[in-house]
Amino acid sequence: MSPQADRPAASEEWVFIGKIGAAHGIHGEVKLFPLSDVPGRFQNLKRVFWIGPKAEARTLQVAACRAMDRFYLVAFEGIETREQASGLTNGHLALPRQERGSLPSGQYFVDDIVGMEVVGEDGKSFGRVAAVWQTGSNDVYEVRGPEGERMLPAVQGIILRIDLAERRMIVRPPDEA
Question: According to the 3-state scheme, what is the secondary structure of the chain?
Fold first, then answer.
């Protein structure tokens, strides 16, 4: 289970697509943990923006990218040693928002869900989505509001409607289903 809350908040300009882990091997590769569900995102990646832990930024050209179990191994042009690759650790990869791609119908970007208002069928406010947990079987939305925190599975029957334009989610919580 991995919370999506540990990444920087998306902005009007940027979308974060991955987090850099440790250097791998001696030739400058790094582990990349994806924060994107866009099909083919990493196989077709050419240019990305690295945002470091202290908000430093630089443009990187992707030389190679290969899928592993739950991450990718990525090599960047000009990063040829383990030491150089280690300097990228704990940074995030970002793309300009207009390059974020598209998802199949009924799927949503985490950045679009986080911060969304959550209300019941009767209009009662439960708060806002604070984080999205990707559990494997289905996402779970962490909602924080005046009555505390609640976890809502992102499944049909619980999540009734998502309105991106209104930034509002209509739900039927499990205890009311």
Answer: CEEHHHCCCCCCCEEEEEEEEEEECCCCEEEEEECCCCCCCCCCCCEEEEECCCCCEEEEEEEEEEECCCCEEEEECCCCCHHHHHCCCCCEEEEEHHHCCCCCCCCCCHHHHCCCEEEECCCCEEEEEEEEEECCCCEEEEEEECCEEEEEECCECCEEEEECCCCEEEECCHHHC
Tell me, what's the pLDDT at 176? 64
Residue 104's pLDDT is what? Answer: 82
Q: What is the pLDDT of residue 170?
A: 97
Q: What's the full length of the chain, in residues?
A: 177
User: What stretches in the chain show pLDDT beneath 50?
Assistant: 1-7, 10
**Of 114, 104, 109, 121, residue with least CA distance to 160:** 121
pLDDT at residue 12 in the model? 63
